């Protein structure tokens, strides 16, 4: 709501009864709150920390109030596989969008690609729109480990047991 104060201090061809008069009017805000949706610029980032995923919350129309979008993070990626610049996105009054970064954490472990699912858990001064979640894939960039196999080349025929040793070049 907005308040308007009008001071009447002069009238042509008339007299103000009692001097200056003041009238206060309240303009009731009957606009529906804006809706907010999430989007992502880059849906796949590599684990080598060369790029980040930019997650953006966008309003349907600008708001005169600050909009706070609280987020949840789920998916197959562990919290040690990435960092987020924030757990919420703040959209300043008059702005249409705000963003956070998802930054993958490099490691030396060969693994499957992992996902981070970002969803809106709550919002203040707006309502959740149709798209309330996005997904980032963190692409593994580590080489497959190599396996070296060895066996004792001299084995007596009657001994019955041979030891075979397999060694990985890196932890996997």
Structure description:
The chain is mostly beta strands. 0% of the residues lie in helices and 48% in strands. It contains no helices and 14 strands. Strands 7-9-5-3-11 form a five-stranded mixed β-sheet, with no helix packed on it. A five-stranded mixed β-sheet has the order 4-12-10-6-8, with no helix packed on it. A two-stranded antiparallel ribbon has the order 1-2.
Keywords, separated by commas or semicolons:
five-stranded mixed beta sheet, 14 strands, 0% helix, mainly beta, 172 residues
What is this structure's SSE topology?
Blueprint: E1 2-8, E2 21-27, E3 35-40, E4 44-46, E5 53-59, E6 67-74, E7 82-84, E8 88-91, E9 97-104, E10 114-124, E11 127-128, E12 133-139, E13 147-151, E14 164-168
Parallel strand pairs: 3-11, 4-12
Antiparallel strand pairs: 1-2, 3-5, 5-9, 6-8, 6-10, 7-9, 10-12, 13-14
Instruction: Identify the overall geometry.
Output: rod-shaped
Distance between the termini: 60 Å
> Biggest sheet, open or closed, and with what strands and sense?
5 strands, mixed
Task: Estimate the strand proportion.
Answer: over 45%
Structural class designation: mainly beta
- Spatial extent as radius of gyration: 31 Å
Model regions low in confidence, pLDDT < 50 over at least 5 residues: none
Helix-strand topology string: EEEEEEEEEEEEEE
Across the major sheet, the strand order is 7-9-5-3-11
Average per-residue pLDDT, rounded, comes to 87
Overall helicity? under 10%
Number of continuous helical runs = 0
Number of strands: 14
